[in-house]
């Protein structure tokens, strides 16, 4: 089977991401990678929990001082919604509707970029308002490392999805790029999974004290 | 496309290896790189033993001794044992499961080059201001205060090569899950494939904590964070936990493949089915599982409290059960078999008692109160060298000898092999057996010299003499390899005569597409099953057709090279007088990201070998 | 599930069937999403209303776990057939991760 073969709506397979051996391998390999990422983020969470509110002196900012409910809420909504829009994109991918898939991916990227913008604003805010920096305390180091690692994952995801869209804009869907789109969306959901724990464990539980 | 059989010039061959995505060639790359690092780590070991041969020796200075000691451990674990294990896996596993290649040939190559550049980076420290000197465990309290850039080389070098290891782990998991030939069910997989499977899972879950630990240490040393700085609220125990959550599974990552190799060898040369196959599989999985539950036994004396120590002590002792199952199964495999003592078999037979001794001292160390006595003495050094040399190194030497004909198409000399074996075995026990007693007499680890008249002189001298025996054995092995390669007497499919598994059903070395037609597996020890039915070849599972092959690529090398370049920038960034560091980081990362971008934009559909080409290839092909 | 089916002999009927199945699944996804937003609102509201922390912490953790299960099983399709191997590896990773978290909450020397 030629990899760049053209498909019609009727010949398009039901599970295009797993229709070729390469696709199957990519799909499985990426899930395995997510298994490893789980341990990576768990280690960062563990480090954060061990160092939460560990500061050198009484003046340093603590979790309950700095976090802000509305900001976190907006960021969370942006990211959760982007998860749904990427589901829509995959829905249209399965229906062999390239244009709609691209459109939903654009929305996903925009929402992700909005999230990232808020995060940058937030970090800037902490540094200037509370002198809560990467080097000010062990708490600061652990906070920025955990949330920053997630932010870096978001940034990488944006680059990834954008380059996929640009690369394939001219040629539509085939069995070579369908698995690529699919694993990119898996990655995006995983970022969301991590964020659910970040907003719960870091922000909400941080505010509760 | 079929450049396979042609004679090539040196340049073309080099380019071929730099860009290869063929698992058999990547195996050779791993073997060469791992072999070089093994010799390097061995040289460091010799320096250690020469320094410790007599009391108050000044062969090396105390500071230099710390560097040698650190680099010996780090090199042997990360740059010698791991890649040699990967060499065996790459050479054998796809053949054992009847696959044409691994699941991700491109990533396979990327994994190798990341390891290679990481190892190169780490070893360049020798020439760039001094090697790391905080021990292979690099405990944060010590490594944070190590002057110079040694520890930074450790951090960045291991980070890069660790990435390669993680990629290799995922690759083997996907390969074994997705690429097995028809009939090759999980419970028909050879034991080496099984141990590769379990080990890859361990890599997948054990390397991320190391990555995180190294990132934290990097941030602390290079970017002023406070993870391990107690004065700013940090906690140095975090490093110890992260390191050992990785470090203990790492021990099993090394030993399980050796177990797998020995299982193949013992069954082959006893000419008997492996005794208790299913219990062997079960024991392998169980060791992998328990491997994650015991890391804190490295930290008994840290002061985690009696409850934590008790839990981890019991969990550690529990590992003796599956290991014991394996030992008895190997013994019973030989029992009543028609045993043939080839070189690999000699290593296998010598491994059983040697490794068991290491296991027994392991149980002694697992007893937490007793460990307070053993901790940081030569008793521990003796223990882990018994399991790592007596287990892993024996396994690798046996595996290299056993699979040499499959990788290179020619047999290593048996006489020279036996000389190597005997001198290595004698040297090994001479070196390390006495160290148990040195430890019990109170000689601490990691010291660069000892005083006269403390009863330590004779023991240390014996140990040093033993090390020279081992060095001699390795030299003989190298001579053996050279002679064999020069003579290059070609052998057939099954040079040992008693091959049981699929890899022995195809020519040595196999054609670049491995199996012309995927073989049909009809039972455990698939090739043996066919032999017992009076056949000489496998039954094909598919008609002859076009074979899809991946394209070669230089991108894995450039991707890794970019990180290598960026690492220099990151390393010197903390020096205030150097202004070139940020541009170097940016250039390096651009090389890496650029390579990744090219990889993702440029379609790579591979190519097909046509049916007609395959039918012409009568002599080399697999008549599957 | 629908994703495992390949094209049958009658392509246009098949297409219609698949489209319907996909649309149905998409509907489930949207419902899942609505519930996730709802859980998030509860979690934020619980913190905003300042209940006892012994009440809030377990509840928001539970809500997070449920949300993540939704993500994994609906958005990431783990409820479909053929995800056994994947689930094995993901949950093994999770087990190692949780053990690490537990360790860092208990035995890091306070």
From TrEMBL, chain A:
Membrane topology: Multi-pass membrane protein
UniProt feature coiled coil, ranges: none
Domain Heme-copper oxidase subunit III family profile span(s) in chain numbering: 28-207
GO cellular component, one term: plasma membrane
GO biological process, one term: aerobic electron transport chain
Domain of life: Bacteria
Molecular function, one GO term: cytochrome-c oxidase activity
InterPro entries: Cyt_c/ubiquinol_Oxase_su3, Cyt_c_oxidase-like_su3, Cyt_c_oxidase_su3-like_sf, Cyt_c_oxidase_su3_a-hlx, Ubiquinol_oxase_su3_dom
CDD domains linked: Ubiquinol_oxidase_III
Keyword terms, alphabetized: Cell membrane, Membrane, Transmembrane, Transmembrane helix
Family matches, as PANTHER family: CYTOCHROME C OXIDASE SUBUNIT 3, CYTOCHROME C OXIDASE SUBUNIT III
Name under which the protein is recorded: Cytochrome (Ubi)quinol oxidase subunit III
Organism listed in the record: Peribacillus asahii
TrEMBL record, chain B:
Catalytic activity field: 4 Fe(II)-[cytochrome c] + O2 + 8 H(+)(in) = 4 Fe(III)-[cytochrome c] + 2 H2O + 4 H(+)(out)
Gene Ontology cellular-component terms listed: plasma membrane
Keywords for this protein: Cell membrane, Copper, Electron transport, Heme, Iron, Membrane, Metal-binding, Oxidoreductase, Respiratory chain, Translocase, Transmembrane, Transmembrane helix, Transport
GO BP: electron transport coupled proton transport; oxidative phosphorylation; respiratory electron transport chain
Membrane topology, from the record: Multi-pass membrane protein
InterPro entries documented for this protein: Cyt_c_oxase-like_su1_dom (IPR023616), Cyt_c_oxase-like_su1_sf (IPR036927), Cyt_C_Oxase_1 (IPR000883), Cyt_c_Oxase_su1_BS (IPR023615), Cyt_c_oxidase_su1_bac (IPR014241)
Membrane-spanning ranges: 27-48, 68-93, 105-128, 153-179, 191-219, 242-262, 274-295, 307-332, 344-364, 384-404, 416-441, 461-483, 554-574, 580-598
Residues covered by the Cytochrome oxidase subunit I profile domain: 9-522
Pfam families for this protein: COX1
Record GO terms (molecular function): cytochrome-c oxidase activity; heme binding; metal ion binding; oxidoreductase activity
Enzyme class label: translocase
Cellular localisation: Cell membrane
Family assignment from sequence similarity: Belongs to the heme-copper respiratory oxidase family.
Name of the featured protein: Cytochrome c oxidase subunit 1
Source taxonomy: Bacteria, Bacillati, Bacillota, Bacilli, Bacillales
Gene for this chain: ctaD
TrEMBL record, chain C:
Membrane-spanning intervals of the chain: 30-49, 55-75, 87-109
Membrane topology summary: Multi-pass membrane protein
Subcellular location per the Swiss-Prot or TrEMBL entry: Cell membrane
Keyword annotations of the record: Cell membrane, Membrane, Oxidoreductase, Transmembrane, Transmembrane helix
EC number: 1.9.3.1
Top-level taxonomic group: Bacteria
Any Pfam family matching the protein: COX4_pro
This protein's record includes keyword Cell membrane: yes
Record keyword Oxidoreductase present: yes
Protein name: Cytochrome c oxidase subunit IVB
Source organism of this protein record: Peribacillus asahii
Gene that this polypeptide is encoded by: ctaF
